[in-house]
Amino acid sequence: MAEPRFDATSIGEMMLRLSVPSGRRLETATQLDVYPAGAEANVISLLARLERKTSWVGALPKNPMGRLASNHLRLAGVNLNNIVWHENGRLGTYYVEFGESPRGIQVTYDRENSCMSKLQPDDLDWNTLLDTRLLHLTGITPAVSSSCREIVKTAIQKAKEQKVPISFDVNYRQKLWTESEASETLLPLIKEVELLFCSQADAIRLFNCKGDMHQIAQSMLELSQARHVVVTFSEQGALLWNGKEWLHEPARPTKILDRLGAGDALAAGVIHGWLNNDLASGLRYGVTLAAMALSQYGDMLITNKAELEKLSQGSSSLSR
Q1: Start-end of H helices in the chain
Q2: Structural domains in the chain, sorted by start
Q3: Residue 122 confidence (pLDDT) above 70
Q4: Could you say which DSSP state residue 319 is in?
Q5: Which of 49, 209, 247, 256 has its CA 20 to 30 A from that of 6?
């Protein structure tokens, strides 16, 4: 049997992030920082930078905004042959104000009627998408539209039929749907996946998990019957549990410049290790990449395999 064409593939929505620096307000902004973003694209582009063969699938408009988004994926080395290009339509956007306590970060979405929200299951080349060692999905896509929900359900069904392992990041977005809607929809989708990612906050509010780190991870494993569960605990790092072995990596110290994209970076690191059949290294990669993401501007982390290997061993800088 031939080796899969890709190491990892994914489906999701890309948007443009328009942000102002910490301390500034959107209503008085005179200029905005522009970054393409999307949870699945963040993971796939980072894996490509780590020399993995990847492909991202989604819908983009044939206009400068769509090309800007795809150019960032191309620069990372992602295969773009399965993008569905729309002659008409729009790229969703979201606006970000970075702020310190007591306000914190503020996000305003403008993503209704995007090209991705109108994508249908029949629009996708499923054979190519599933020609992979791992399919990565998130809980954001089912919240975008009813057709996107069907796309994720179809993807999971087809992947299981073809025995393609699935990675799923819960990634709850409260501005897209309610906790009850998310819980009801996501619970059947996360059943028996290979890798399940969930934050402590999402485990508590969506799935009513209680207790300490180990109890929450155990509850998520029992709920999902996933092969491996990775639960993130902010400053306490990440915990991986598969019913046999506990793996824990504390968070790496870092200077926070941009809070967005850290969870996606962690998922990419774990997947990178999983692809090497080494989840212990994967968890170490994950917390290292999450710290790096916090210290860089933009949702898409820019790094490389050599830098990750060096920094994940504990060195704070590379040799000259």
Answers
A1: 39-49, 64-76, 126-129, 141-144, 146-161, 179-189, 200-207, 213-224, 262-275, 279-294, 305-312
A2: 11-312 (3.40.1190.20)
A3: yes
A4: -
A5: 247
